[in-house]
Amino acid sequence: MKQFLTLFLSFLVIATSSMMAQAKDENKPEMTFEKTEHDFGSFKESDGPMTCVFKFTNTGKGMLVIHQAIATCGCTVPIYPKEPIKPGESGEIKVTYNGKGRRAGEFEKNITIRANTKAQIYRLKVKGSMIAK
Q1: Which of 52, 53, 84, 79 is nearest to 66 (CA)?
Q2: Domain spans of the chain?
Q3: How far apart are CA 17 and CA 7, in angstroms?
Q4: 32, exposed or middle or buried, with CB in 10 Å at 0-12, 13-18, 19+?
Q5: Predicted TM-score of the model (pTM)
Q6: What sign for the dihedral angle of Cα 35, 81, 77, 46?
Q7: How confident is the model over 14-46, as pLDDT tens digits?
Q8: 71 close to 96: Cβ distance less than 8 angstroms
Q9: 5, 18, 73, 98, 109 from 25: Cα distances, Å
Q10: Are 87 and 72 in contact (CB under 8 A)?
Q11: Least CB-packed of 52, 69, 79, 126 within 10 Å?
């Protein structure tokens, strides 16, 4: 009987913890992007830096905070909102690729976004083909 009671209480603690974690996740913000990839196509190095915008909406229930946006290369710079974004509101991440002085040809750069969402990490991609001067 004592063993059964211990087993039952252990199950109850685990089940309660799981339900609390699920409820906590339901109140988290969510980032929904219009697109996660942008193709600049072919462009000349002399055209200068290329910029695109990734628009997103907070489709969750909590305040969205973007902690970090990091590109795989110093030639790619993401700019993101520093203020919290309310549920239902939108924002954008501006990404600039500067290929000046770099090898001409095709490129593909990834941007990692860290936020206080359920997923915690999002990946964006820019690509294109730079033609020498």
Answers
A1: 84
A2: 3-131
A3: 16
A4: exposed
A5: 0.80
A6: positive
A7: 544 444 444 456 889 999 999 999 999 999 999
A8: no
A9: 30, 11, 33, 38, 31
A10: no
A11: 79
